Amino acid sequence: PPLETRGTDIMNKYEYKTIKIESKGFFNTNIQNDKRLNELGESGCKLITAVAEQFKGDTTAFYYTFMREKQ
Q1: How far are the Cα atoms of 10, 32, 45, 55 from residue 23, in angstroms, in the given order?
Q2: CA-based diameter of the chain, in Å?
């Protein structure tokens, strides 16, 4: 059976952005990467996935996918 909308036909719409950040070691961080992630948060984006890219057992990069409601 179809889902009921209970009086509303409005659906929220979202946009997505995926970024890749190269890994520099477990304890190393890059201030530019932190700044970039913080800017996305400030613009209303929410982190929805983080996936590690690996090569021969080493993590080489992370892919972060963000979502925010369309204005």
Answers
A1: 41, 13, 22, 12
A2: 54
Cα separation, 40 vs 48, whole angstroms: 12
| Cα–Cα distance measured from residue 55 to residue 41, given in angstroms and rounded to the nearest whole number | 29
Q: Enter the pTM of the model.
A: 0.72
pLDDT in tens for each of the 71 residues of the chain?
555 655 566 788 999 999 998 877 655 667 788 889 999 999 999 999 999 999 998 888 899 999 999 98
* Degrees to nearest 5, angle at CA 23 with 38 and 65: 45
Quick check: 66 and 17 in contact, CB under 8 A?
yes
